[in-house]
Design goal:
elongated, mainly alpha, binds protoporphyrin IX containing FE, 5 helices, Fumarate Reductase Cytochrome B subunit, single chain
C-alpha cells in the first residue's frame, strides 16, 4: 500500500486525511453544541478557542485533501454497484466537501466580522481580512448555526452507506478506506 491512491484503493495519505478530518468534524460539532448551551464566561471562551483552533487545522487538512485528490487516481466504484448508488455516493462525497467548506467559511467570516481572527492553539492567529461589522457578524453567525445541519446529515448518510456496503453488500469499500483490500 503506497502513499498514492490506486484505481482500487485509497493510499496512505488519503486515508490519513480522511480520518483526521472525520475526528476533527466530530469534535467541532460536539464542542460547537456544547458551548451553545453555556453562559458567557471563561469556560465558554476556552471552548470557542479550542473549537476555532481545531477548525483551522480542518481547513488546512481539507485544502491539502482536495489538492491531493486531483493529483492522483480516485478509486472507482466497485463493480456491480447499481447506478443509483453510484450517483448517491458521488453526491454525498461532493456534498460533504462543499458543506464543510461553507461551514468553515461561515465560522471564519463570523469571527472576522466580529473583529477577531482565528486563533490556532495560542501559537498564532490567522487574520480574516474583512471589516468589523455587527450586521454582517450576526448574519454569518446565523449561517453558522444552520449550516452544520447539512454537514451532520450527510455524515450520517455517508456512514450508513459505508456500513451497508461492508455488512450487507460485503464489498471492499470500507476496507479500502481502512485496513486495505483483501
Ligand atoms: C467545518 C467546520 C465547523 C463546524 C462543523 C462547526 C460547528 C459548529 C456548531 C455545531 C456550532 C454550534 C451552533 C449553534 O449554536 O447552533 C458552532 C458554533 C461556533 N463556531 Fe463553529 N464550526 C466549524 C468551524 C468554525 C470556524 C472556522 C470558526 C471560526 C474561527 C468557528 C467558530 C464558532 C463560534 C464562535 C461559534 C459560537 C457561535 C454562537 O454561539 O453564536 N466555527 N460551530
Ligand atoms: C465513522 C465515520 C466515517 C466512515 C465509516 C467513513 C467511511 C468512508 C469510506 C469507506 C470511504 C471510501 C468510499 C469509497 O472508496 O468508495 C469514504 C470516503 C469519503 N469520506 Fe468518509 N467516512 C466517515 C466519516 C467521514 C466524514 C466525517 C467526512 C466529512 C468530510 C467524510 C468524507 C468522505 C469523502 C469526501 C470521501 C470520498 C473521498 C474521495 O474519493 O474523494 N467521511 N468514507
Amino acid at each position: 500500500m503506497g502513499l498514492k491512491n490506486t484505481i482500487t484503493e485509497h493510499g496512505t495519505l488519503a486515508k490519513a486525511l480522511h480520518w483526521l478530518v472525520a475526528i476533527g468534524l466530530f469534535a467541532l460539532i460536539y464542542l460547537g453544541l456544547q458551548q451553545a448551551e453555556m453562559e458567557r464566561g471563561d469556560a465558554r471562551s476556552s471552548i470557542r478557542f479550542i473549537h476555532a483552533s481545531i477548525a483551522a487545522i480542518v481547513l488546512l487538512l481539507m485544502t491539502v485533501r482536495i489538492v491531493w485528490r486531483f493529483m492522483n487516481d480516485v478509486p472507482a466504484h466497485p463493480e456491480g454497484m447499481p447506478a443509483w448508488q453510484r450517483t448517491i455516493s458521488t453526491l454525498v462525497h461532493w456534498g460533504l466537501y462543499i458543506t464543510v467548506f461553507v461551514q468553515l467559511t461561515a465560522g471564519a467570516m463570523m469571527n472576522g466580522t466580529g473583529g477577531r481572527g482565528i486563533p490556532v492553539f495560542g501559537l498564532f492567529t490567522i487574520a480574516v481580512p474583512v471589516a468589523k461589522n455587527s450586521d454582517a457578524h450576526e448574519w454569518w453567525e446565523e449561517v453558522h448555526e444552520v449550516a452544520w445541519w447539512p454537514v451532520a446529515i450527510l455524515i450520517v448518510v455517508h456512514i450508513l452507506g459505508a456500513l451497508y456496503n461492508h455488512f450487507i453488500v460485503k464489498n471492499d469499500v470500507l476496507r479500502r478506506m481502512t485496513v486495505g483490500v483483501k
